Amino acid sequence: MALLRKVNRVLLTLLVVMACVLLHSKLTRAPPPPLQLTEHGDRSTKSLIPVVICASENRMGAAMATINSVHSNTEASLIFYIVTLQDAVALTRQYIESTALKGIQYKILEFNPMVLRGKVKPDSSRPDLLHPLNFVRFYLPLLDINYDRLIYLDDDVIVQGDIKDLFSIRLQPGHAAAFASDCDLPSTHEMVRSVGMQTTYMGFLDYRKRIVKDLGINPRDCTFNPGVFVADMQEWKKQKITKQLERWMEENFRQNLYSSAIAGGVATPPMLIVFHNKFTTIDPWWNVRHLGWSPDSGYPDNVLDKAKLLHWNGRYKPWMYPSVHPEVWERWFVPDPTGKFSLLRPGSNG
């Protein structure tokens, strides 16, 4: 009997120890980061120009066209950081390795959308603008990129200039990023007015809300486009830009300070607030945009030829129909080896 009690005590002690070990492991286990590296590349050189671009499963061909245009128009050494969701990692790799892009240097980063919980709420007017990858630009310091400077590009752009020139821009002291102002490039003003594009803060923020008024931002101030920018990561971290952006996402979640109906997206307003009067302007020819705002209003050939970067921001993307200047975009299109991404054209089955 004494032996049995002794055995029971030993077993009970072992169970308690095991329970403590399991509890400690659970409490100290780090939560999954919002961005996880799923493919590794060579870190042997710091002379590469890092270009960040997001690639969603249903727009993979768009991202690949952007990458192809950047790669084809420079002799600089590049590394592409391609951010996607878990369900598109394999497709991203296959798209590159099975096409003419297989020679590029790249890394695939998987974005964890759980980081957006409590910060983004459904918006029925433009649900496509709520895709988690639209917010990757907020979390640049969390990407596994060991560079002090990087370029971020939306997937609906075509680069016609040498990306090295954009990368080499001199940022003003204390500025964490450089954007194109919406009041630059007079050549585009007529088209912008014709499609009713918003180019001031009044078109992006709800000035009826006290917290917006308290910002002290003149509603007539010119906005900028956050789909193309150069980022200084040291300043970004120093100023805690990501935390500032998250704060405005959370405020909007609670108070509805902006919506996709007002702003054409919920990823732009936080950037407009945080970077108001705190950014360097890039050459406007490095973001000739609004090509996707109307299927009927395009640019003359002299503007298209001079543009170093063309941006189809808006609903009418160049891989869809109708759209403007699709033939310009198609010069850089790389057909999907899996056949999942196809161009929507008159007479197609899309």
Q: What does it look like?
A:
The structure is a single chain. The protein has 350 residues and is α/β, with parallel strands linked by helices. It has one domain (35-162, 171-330): Spore Coat Polysaccharide Biosynthesis Protein SpsA, Chain A, CATH 3.90.550. 31% of the residues lie in helices and 14% in strands. It contains twelve helices and ten strands. An eight-stranded mixed beta sheet has the order 1-4-3-2-5-8-7-9, with helices on both faces. Helix 2 links the parallel strand 2 (49-54) and strand 3 (78-84). The longest helix is centred in the N-terminal third of the chain and has 27 residues, at 2-28. The protein starts with a helix and ends in a 20-residue tail after the last helix. InterPro entries: Glyco_trans_8, Glycosyltrans_8_dom-fam, Nucleotide-diphossugar_trans. This is Glycosyltransferase 8 domain-containing protein 2. It comes from Muraenolepis orangiensis (Patagonian moray cod). One of its GO terms (cellular component) is Golgi apparatus.
